[in-house]
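Hi F.,

I've been meaning to write this up properly since the lab meeting, where we talked about keeping a consistent format for the predictions we share between groups. The idea is simple: the sequence comes first, exactly as it goes in, then the structure tokens exactly as they come out, then a line or two of notes. No screenshots and no reformatting. I'm using this chain as the first example so we have something concrete to point to.
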Amino acid sequence: MPHLSVNAARRHFQALALSALLALNLPTAHAAPLSAAEESAIDSTVREALRTQRAPGAVVAIRRGGELLLRRAYGLADVASGRAMHEDTAFEIGSITKQMTAAAVLQLVQAGRLSLDDAVSKFVPSYPAAAQVTVRQLLQQTSGLPDFAGTEAFAANATQTPARFEQVLATVQAAPQQFTPGSRFRYSNTNYLLLARIVETVSGQPFATRLGEQVLAPVGMAHTGASDGALRWPDLASGHTTEAGQVQRAPRFQPSWIRGAGELVSTADDLLAWAEALGSGRVVSPASYQAMATPAVLNNGQPDGYGFGLFVDRQAGHARLWHGGGTLGFSSSLMRYPAEQLTIVVLVNHEALNASALSASLFEVLHPEARAAHAPVPGEDPALTQQLRAWLAALKQGTPSADIALAPAQRQALQNTLDNYGRPEALVYRGQRGDGERRYLLRFGAQWFHFDFSRAAGGALRAATITPE
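Output, unedited:
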């Protein structure tokens, strides 16, 4: 994660965690209905995103203060048959599954059957690389374990045949650890594969059974489950991709390859119910929910922006808890803004449309000041912006450049961010300080970062800081 002063970072994330905890005790406020202008702007935003990415359809649901503001279907659930999308159409939700997996783990912790500081090797002795990793580090994505979803074996087999846990783990069994556990954040689906296995080992039940009985059913999520389980959906969207300019059905992952990392299918209604139940302490205890909503503290004392199955950050000053999901042909997002009890669900049946970025755009429709905070200001030098793109590309690739004269710690912080999030999808000029420092915003999907930099006399990048919004 980006470099922050330790004290500033602690204050930043302590405030986020506190706002999430206070949301447990907020009275349910009466939510004003959407205005005609807001509804029209939401429709326009969704339809334009679908058009731009050639996505067949989507379902959007927005709830605030316990009241449903919008529940709407767009386009087609399946292109080949022309089947229309409906508000209760089910979608693969990918990594949104991770917060349900985290809740299943925390329920076992609450029951005294498991400790967050237990070594993973206690439950999965066959994986030596995890011997120094704790359950907490799996939840917080700070284990350093390689991601099985990035292996050639996964790409070759995950859509073809079901797999046992041991077969999936074998894809990374011999791979080295990427860093010392707890020293940094790096998203890895292996962490949640292992957590699902731990749930099975401790509970004595298959993961899907345990999840269904103890996590989903008590919330009333009757339309959520593993796609290879007993649950059947009368209206299940088809995932789509674009090949050679044609939108077509995408292949599907075998759920046994992704289990606790992303196997669930759900509906917008069920996800709204989940967000409300989780935030009100009906899934796990208030203390466990606070743990979920509190970012990890790394070995150097700096926090990052991930809790237990949740990203914890801000959008234009508004505290936010969220996760996106992506499987072949699907993109999904569940965002909650706890201070105003606002939940936004976006489900899309095309992999090219980033549902989390669309969710963040819908938030900005409801909060024009947030959109203004991300708008460019006058005075941008297009040549300098292009140079910034070149610097970021070089840092992402780890290639030496005479144009980059950063201190090692600053270089590493930037490289870590780019390693975690990829290249930014937008660079927005936000002005210049009197000492010549330039200010930009960088957008990675739904996340914004402040990027401030200065140049040496010859034009080289001399100093830079990147901080979460």
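Notes:
The mean pLDDT is 92.
The domain at 382-468 is CATH 3.10.450 (Nuclear Transport Factor 2; Chain: A,).

If this format works for you, I'll send the rest the same way.

G.
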